[in-house]
Amino acid sequence: VVQKKYDSTTDFPKFSKSYNGTMLTGFTGYQHDDLGRVKRVEKAVFDPEKNSGNSGIESINSITSPEVILAKDYEYDSGTGVVKKVEDNFGRSTENSYDYLNRIIKTDRRDADGVLVSRIRTGYDSSGRVEKRQSWSKDKTVFSEYFYDTFGREVANCLYTVDVNENTDCINSGCTLNNGRCSAKMYNTGGQVIWSADTEMGQASQL
What we know:
- By secondary structure, the chain is mostly beta strands.
- It is about 0% helix and about 55% strand.
- It has a 15-stranded antiparallel beta sheet with strand order 1-2-3-4-5-6-7-8-9-10-11-12-13-14-15.
């Protein structure tokens, strides 16, 4: 069971509490900026047997016996208002870059020491659909392509490994793609998938 409370003046979410029966198991508190955007989210998780006295809390600062507390701070672009960076209370962060249409084109994740642990680049077609995606993590890079029919439905996608590091942009510059796998599917006139195939598995199925 989840109980929510909203600010009586702004109507923004103030906090939510999770219960297992009558026992409090979790608390999430929200802070907002002057524009109503979430600037901080704090979550606490409890052992139901150890939270006596916490059922009436309305602030994470009033919690006496949380098992885990996780906080995230949100930073927004001053011009466009999109989420620029999210950082937790352990120092781990996620930072987004956008194109002129405010679509995410790059996402970097860093550990508590500021070391880059993953990078995702995304490219879009003229209709705004994801066309290409490049993912780097732990010295491994994979590259994906997506294909659509005239109705905008995905009809195929291909996944390859690429011998490049995190600084190479295969979305815009092009890279040599190694052997990978492709999946395809067909739809009937009602829009239901009636056939699919995967080249890596060497199998096709009719649904």
